[in-house]
Amino acid sequence: MERLREIANRLGMSVEDLARLSIEEVLAAPDDRFEQAADYVLKKNEELYWPPLDRLRWGKAGTRMGSTVGLHNYTSTNQTGVASSGPENVHEQTGIPSLLILDGRALDRECLASALEDHDLGMAVVAMGSIGEWRMKKGSAPPLAAILFNLGGRKVSDHGIADEIRNISSEFKSVPVVILADTEDLVQILTALECGARGYIPTSVGIDVCVEAINLAAAGGIFVPASSVLSMRHLIDSGNCDTRPLTGMFTLRQAEVAQALRRGKANKIIAYELNLRESTVKVHIRNIMKKLKATNRTEVAYKVNDLFAEGTLAEE
Q1: For residue range 12-54, what is the model confidence (pLDDT) as tens digits?
Q2: Contact at 8 Å (CB) between 200 and 193?
Q3: What are phi and psi of 100, to 5 degrees?
């Protein structure tokens, strides 16, 4: 305080005026550290978010993509061939056949559309959140060459999914519907094909395989992953070998249940795998036990193993 009085006296003003003047100067003076931090952030944004030179584009007013306005123009107006869900962004090239991507997740469908367009899909790409959204905008949209229905982590067996696939396939009879999903389960793939899908692409494949699978479906073929074909062959081979020793004593369904008991499977699992009610499985087990004169499941498994051993010796 004494220091302030000395300075005020030397300048010929009151302490209050001196204090007020100092605060105003502090508020008006720019903070060098703030400006330095702001420059650093802008520079880093420029380095991170400017597209590579070979893909550099310009906004409508000649704005470079490094600025906020230019970046907005780049994502909203300069992506050729990819239509977002906005009504004004349905693809304008009505003469080019297009791929319709159906995915309720905006970011996923836009990224997928961009990736397919960048990998020479050979057709325009329209991304919509639902088939209902497509119906509202199809008047200004190009003709469809294929539909890619992205399930993501959902399964065909989930509630309502199979019916949706059937409805889309029946509505667009001349347009192949291809399913894209995370699972490679053979049951899910077969169910999708039964519902009318013309292909099933697991997300474990690369983008190039995805492009070829879509083009195959558009040309009239059906794509399924190689893993599912191998699984199907294994099931057919193992089914023929596994039930052969039992067919002389049991019906085909009893032979399948007996084989499952041999492997130690529970009734619920057997019912699920054979598409039976659990009560029906129990009836089959009782009949199997009678024919084998067994008193429990363990004895059934033991005697079925003996039948397999005898069958193998007879074949040899």
Answers
A1: 777 676 666 655 554 455 556 666 777 776 776 666 555 443 4
A2: yes
A3: -100, 120
Give the chain's domain count.
3
How does strand 177-181 pair with strand 200-202?
A: parallel
Do 194 and 236 fall into the same domain? no
- Interior CA angle at 268 toward 263 and 273, to 5°? 65
Residues contacting residue 7 through CB under 8 Å, at least 6 positions apart: 18
d(CA 316, CA 298): 28
Task: Give every strand in the sheet of 200-202, ordered side by side.
Answer: 82-83, 124-128, 98-102, 144-152, 177-181, 200-202
Res 201 pLDDT > 90: yes
Domain containing residue 27: 2-47
Task: Report CA-CA distances (Å) from 181 to 166, 167, 172.
Answer: 16, 18, 20
pTM: 0.50
Six token digits for residue 144: 């469809």
